[in-house]
Request: fold
Amino acid sequence: MSQFTFIQKINVASIRDYIITHRIDQGDTLVLNPQDFEHLFHDIKASSDEIPDIPLKLLGVLITQDSTDTVPIGKVQIVKNEKF
Reply:
């Protein structure tokens, strides 16, 4: 079962804090709106000299781009223990 949750600003710090605060487990997936995913990708890229690995993982949680155009900007979809 998945749910949508609003996050004020999508960036590495807000996603990290969200994962910790809401105890998102390794094996779970956060699905982002394509625009938010691109912003997060550039945020990670700007903080390092290397290009981020795809798929993106933060604290063992997979972060992926919504391919169905259902996740609104500023929200994340939490998918519990499902394979993509």
